[in-house]
Design brief:
This protein has 413 residues and is α/β, with parallel strands linked by helices. It is built from 15 helices and 13 strands. The strands form three sheets. A seven-stranded mixed sheet has the order 1-9-8-5-4-2-3, sandwiched between helices. Helix 1 packs antiparallel against helix 8, helix 3 packs across helix 4 and helix 8 crosses helix 13. The longest helix is centred in the middle third of the chain and has 32 residues. It binds pyridoxal-5'-phosphate. Pyridoxal-5'-phosphate binds next to helix 4.
Length: 413
């Protein structure tokens, strides 16, 4: 059978599961909220109910919901007492917010490379990045696979560093049986549209530390304190409160999270095993410590010299076979114009001139961005085993026809 890109029949014509998934649970809660007239979290009950449910599902006693998963990172950094020009170690292969939130806390992101097999922060690189100014490590559970938390926590404990997990991809994931979001001092999740739990926008900080929780809660609410007057403000902060309509949607979504996470994990494991049999394709390596992967993304590397065709052509061929996919990030973070140009606005005024992100050495992250990474979105894994079979067959077909794909190469550019 010829490649669909070259005129053959595609492996798949049926669409995959769509995202977001919603239904009566959200409708009932949204209408009830609308009719109650209690649309803000100060008066309604949806956001506080969600905070408790989400935190306890993620092994935490405290959850502080906020407007998105970028400010949640910044609030966690502020609550941890990060001071101007302190250094915070971050991976270079992540969404911009992991590093920009550090700058918006007036601190310095220091990049430590990822491991080329797991795509997560390499603890040895993090250790090499530590200086006397380091105050925190911000590992990302990338794609939904927990970072190497045992090594990261050991490093942090030895040097008295704060650990904030960026769990924006990791709803429902677990590490050695412990929920992602309950291992560091604090964690941050996102509920933006693409995320495994969504209300269009939103975020939460989870923690088991009552003092950190109180600091986060104050910062998300204009610096107020529990027994203070309404117009009494104790710390510099802002209004980052999540609204009740989003709380209502999130409570509805949360009812489905456990089952959806199990489905994604089972389909992801199956797909990884199938794809790993093809030369030059390397799905995200899964250490035994990852007891549940939330598969916000199904990620793999394609080594062109082994596979026998370039990534751009493979992506087009897969899409034509009915499997939507992308190359993911085009830049490793140190190469982003923001860092190249040190366009930090009013932040880091004293330190900015001394920083030079061209010095950041992150070859694994660079390689993923430049030529190897392939992403499939989480909702492709929400269907049946037959859907995962179709994805595997599309990869197999493209591999079998790599010769034809290369011959057609010129017209593919
Ligand atoms: C790893 C990571 N961290 C943080 C964020 C920021 O979340 P938000 O979009 O809710 O601000 C995102 C996603 O968008 C992300 O992928």
């Amino acid at each position: 059978m010829m490649l669909a890109l070259l005129g053959g029949a595609p492996v798949r014509t049926k669409p995959f599961s769509t995202w977001p998934v919603f239904g009566e649970a959200e409708e009932v809660r949204l209408l009830r909220t609308l009719r109650s007239g209690k649309w803000g979290r100060l008066h309604g009950e949806e956001v506080s109910e969600f905070e408790q449910r989400f935190a306890s599902m993620h092994g935490c006693t405290h959850g502080i919901a906020v407007v998105n998963g970028t400010v949640s990172l910044r609030i966690a950094l502020l609550a941890a007492g990060i001071q101007a020009e302190d250094e915070v170690i971050v991976p270079p292969y992540t969404f911009i917010s992991t590093a920009s939130a550090v700058i918006e806390a007036n601190a310095i992101p220091v990049f430590a490379d990822i491991d080329l097999q797991t795509f997560n922060l390499d603890p040895a690189a993090a250790e090499r990045a530590i200086t006397p100014r380091t105050r925190a490590i911000l590992p990302v559970h990338f794609a939904g696979q927990p970072a190497d938390m045992a090594a990261i926590m050991a490093l942090a404990q030895a040097r008295s560093l704060v650990v904030i997990e960026d769990a924006a991809h990791a709803h429902g994931a677990s590490y050695r049986g412990r929920p992602a979001g309950s291992i560091g001092d604090m964690a941050s999740f996102s509920f933006q549209s693409s995320k495994n739990l969504t209300a269009g926008e939103g975020g939460i900080i989870t923690t088991n530390d009552a003092a950190l929780a109180a600091a986060c809660r104050s910062i998300q609410n204009c610096g107020r304190v529990p027994d203070g007057l309404w117009y009494e403000h104790h710390v510099i902060s802002g209004n980052y409160r999540l609204g009740e309509f989003q709380g209502a949607v999130l409570n509805g979504q949360l009812d489905r999270l456990e089952e959806q996470t199990r489905t994604r994990d089972a389909n992801g494991r199956y797909l990884a095993a199938r794809i790993a049999t093809l030369p030059g394709l390397y799905p995200q390596a899964r250490p035994v410590d990852c007891t549940r992967h939330s598969y916000h993304l199904f990620m793999l590397r394609l080594d062109e010299s082994v596979f026998g065709a370039p990534r751009a052509a493979v992506l087009r061929a897969l899409a034509a076979e009915g499997v939507p996919c992308s190359a993911g990030y085009g830049f490793s973070l140190p190469h982003q114009p923001l860092f190249r140009n040190r366009a930090f606005g009013p932040y880091l005024a004293g330190a900015s001139a001394k920083l030079d992100y061209r010095d950041a050495r992150c070859p694994a992250s660079d390689l993923l961005c430049r030529e190897q990474c392939i992403w499939l979105e989480q909702h492709l894994l929400l269907g049946s085993r037959a859907d995962a079979e179709d994805i595997a067959r599309a990869f197999e077909k493209v591999y079998e026809h790599r010769g034809a794909l290369n011959q057609a190469g010129v017209s593919l550019q």
